[in-house]
Amino acid sequence: MKERDNPFFAEIAAGVASVVEDAGYALYTASSEGDAEIENRLLEDWTQRDVDGLIIYPVMNDDTDLQNLLALQRARIPFVLMERIAGVKANVVDVSTAAASKKAVRHLIDGGHRRIVHFAGPLYSQHSDARIDGMRYAFSETKVAFSDDLVVRAGARAEEGYRAALDVFDGLSEDERPTAATCFNDLVALGVYRALHELGLDVPGDVSLVGCDGLSVLDYLPLRLTTLRSPTHQMGATAATILREHIEADQEPPLRQKRFEPELVVRDSTRARSGDRTT
């Protein structure tokens, strides 16, 4: 996993456990914390251990070294990637990130929002770039102009969303500030929500807010977050099932790729702007 304190990865791990533990396998987890060097060391370590297979949520940035994945293939250690990597032929379980982001932004545009900011994720995740692409696609289908300054690099954690939102919204007049925000994940959205509250801005009265992942723990907040819900438990179970098939097969089975479609769940943190719904 990339971040040990992110419930998204814990929910995926629970799905993995539901498959592998019933089959008699022991499940071990390790976190790179988004650091490519740590990920490389972990992969080297697991390659040397007597492991049956790996499920990997890869770090993707300029420091990424694909040699360790190639070493796993040479050692015939089966693995499943939870994010596609260009040029690497592997089992993959993933989500349609760009399409989901486009859906969220169109929901806001169709509701009359024109000033929409996106709090982007960390540089080590290809999903972060895909979410930005989805935002561009949504704008391109309308008469609303997209500009790069609508994308603000935040990160993957609540405190990063909090700091980024303070930087964006503090000191802006009502005519200047964005009326809506989409976020890399639900944790970032949680941080953005706290910043808006401290600045005296109402969600969704002043700013509509959309998260991503659909973390079950956030269902218990007083303000229920509009989000793109990914089937995290099913994703983990699917990855574990594919991995188990490769571990137990007498002959190497064909590679499998499964892509899930996140669901836009509209709840309390977004609302349409009256009198301005044309695109």
Give a written overview of the molecule.
This protein is α/β, with parallel strands linked by helices. The chain contains 8 helices and 10 strands. The strands form 3 sheets. The chain has a 4-stranded parallel β-sheet, with helices on one face. β1, α3 and β2 form a beta-alpha-beta unit. α1 packs across α8 (232-248). The radius of gyration is 20 Å and the shape is elongated. The relative contact order is 0.17. The mean pLDDT is 90.
End-to-end gap: 40 Å
The largest sheet is: 4 strands, parallel
Low-confidence stretches: none
Query: Which structural category do the helix and sheet elements fall into?
Result: alpha/beta
Largest beta sheet: what is the strand line-up? 1-2-3-9
Q: Mean pLDDT, as a whole number?
A: 90
| Number of distinct helices | 8
Helix content: 25-40%
Our estimate of the beta-strand percent is 5-15%
**How many strands appear in the DSSP assignment?**
10
Radius of gyration: 20 Å
- Tell the overall outline: elongated
Order of helices and strands: HHEHEEHEHEHEHEEHEE
Q: What oligomeric state do the depicted chains represent?
A: single chain
